[in-house]
Write a structure and sequence with these properties.
globular
Length: 99
């Protein structure tokens, strides 16, 4: 992939409770340009998805600060129901692993 090229990738993780966490990732300039999270889970508040997605945008690849990212996600005022942030991270890793 050239530095200016934007590619789209998908990743997913099925968690123990049977919920599915899916991500669509746009990658460009060796970083995550955009992340969309979807699946069969719930968030409180429901509009918290944007806060979560924003935490991943402009992260350089490969992601080397996993623990810091997970801590930042935990500090958001968003409660996940049906998955953990670690599950989301695994889905993102799957999406970007072929870079």
């Amino acid at each position: 992939m050239s530095k200016s090229e934007i590619v789209s990738r998908r990743g997913s993780v099925k968690v123990e409770e049977g919920k599915l966490v899916k991500v669509d990732v746009k990658i460009g300039n060796e970083m995550i340009e955009e992340l969309k999270v979807h699946g069969d889970f719930f968030l409180e508040p429901a509009n918290g998805i944007k806060q979560i997605e924003d935490q991943f945008e402009e992260l350089e690849l490969p992601i080397e600060n996993k623990n810091e990212l997970l801590n930042d996600l935990e500090e958001l005022n968003v409660r996940t129901i049906g998955f953990e942030f670690e599950d989301l991270f695994k889905a993102v890793e799957e999406a970007v692993k072929n870079d």
